[in-house]
Amino acid sequence: MDKRACPCGSGAAYADCCGPYHRGGPAPTPEALMRSRYSAFALNLTDYLLASWHASTRPASLAADDQTRWVRLEIMASEAAGAQGRVHFRATFREGRRWAVLEEASRFLREEGRWYYQDGNTSMNRLKPGRNDPCPCGSGRKFKACCGVA
Ligand SMILES: [Zn+2]
Ligand SMILES: [Zn+2]
């Protein structure tokens, strides 16, 4: 796993990207934390998702999700000011043949040197990629020649 490309799509190896945060190292920015949480969703690291969630909004538990495959993360904007941060992102996923994009404007809080996810405004859009459309996974290939291969 460590030498493989990080699920967050940064282009770096997992060991040089989100891996150290999953092992307990503090993420230096809200964007880095957001990336590591996306990777944790992709890898089903529910303990990490809970640990990086601010105590004021953290759910009591999270069920592992084997149905959802997270295929692409796009960070649209991110900022940090003092102990507060914001990240606007789009995350593309599929469940079998169903595709969707989750878009969220997230808020983050820093406490004692660590960033935590606080909450976000989320919207969900179904995707219906056509055979000749660009693949929603971001590969640059046509859907029919990429994830749309039957
Ligand atoms: Zn990463
Ligand atoms: Zn694809």
From TrEMBL:
InterPro entries: NTF2-like_dom_sf (IPR032710), SEC_C_motif (IPR004027), YchJ-like (IPR023006), YchJ-like_M (IPR048469). It holds the Pfam family YchJ_M-like. It comes from Halomonas salifodinae. It comes from the Bacteria. Residues 29-120 form the YchJ-like middle NTF2-like domain. Belongs to the UPF0225 family. This is UPF0225 protein ACFQH5_04405.
